Amino acid sequence: MATQSYSLIIHGGAGALEDLKYEASESEFRESVLEILAAGRERLESGVAALDVVEYCVNLLEDNPLYNAGRGSVLNENGEVEMDAALMNGEDLKAGAVTCVKRIKNPISLARQVLEQGDHVMLAAEGALEFAKFCQAELRNDEYFITNARIKQLKEAKAAGRMMLDHEKVKPSQKLGTVGAACMDSSGNLAAATSTGGLVNKRWGRVGDTPVVGAGVFADNETCAVSATGYGEQFLRTVFAKTVSDYVQFKGLDAPGAAIAGVDYLVRKVNGAGGVIVVDRHGKCAAAQSTSGLIHGWIELGSEAICKLG
Ligand code: ASP
Known about the structure:
Distance between the termini: 37 Å
Radius of gyration: 17 Å
CATH topology: Glutamine Phosphoribosylpyrophosphate, subunit 1, domain 1
Bound molecules: aspartic acid
CATH architecture: 4-Layer Sandwich
Largest sheet: 8 strands, mixed
Number of domains: 1
Structural class: alpha+beta
Number of helices: 10
């Protein structure tokens, strides 16, 4: 039974705006963000739980080849798609994650199955694929995921000498198009979800921040729900999403304060490049970034949907 208002915020990645527009116009991003927010609103108004809503919104982002998650994921150094995803429920701190997965149409829904199954928090690579078959998750061939834009992007990265094995040399201006959602449902429960193809030309087998609870995703009903995007190694080293939550818990900040404090910390400690979306336990929405662009949109406490690309 719905008792209060709801909030929802989604993102489609951080980076330099010109890189974000790699394969599409601003209006295409704007339209898709507003469509997904409208679909999320419909569910929230009918009392659907935050965890289901973030999974659903991320499914829609994964299905859209504009974004670096699911279909349209960037390619690793071998020209392959390897995806990471995780989600977390703020009510009981249950979490599910998958890493280095191939062929999974919706990695976030496989992460949800891991959460529901309950024995483990994260499954990787072949083991995750076995589990996906067991759960009868939807699988697709490589052609489904790999777009011409991604092949071109990988060629450019390699031509620019960015096929090196050392990730520290990957330029932060490279497109960082991970997707995510954070939500407070009408019962006051929080949840967050993040899904990605990772970094262009990443080393085979590399695990970023996205599937790591406390780095790329975090939710706790006592504080906030967080989804991050950016250069994953920096988010891992700063335990980024949990750090944002800690700013709420121990410094008494709200979502806008914690988002800014988190990004300040990221920049100060590791010169980090990326962004974050946050919903706090009172339903306040916020985003902050150290890159020039962050594709995102939100509905705060049931109000009008707003989309921002910068
Ligand atoms: N955080 C992701 C990763 O490092 C990339 C992104 O956010 O676009 O895998």
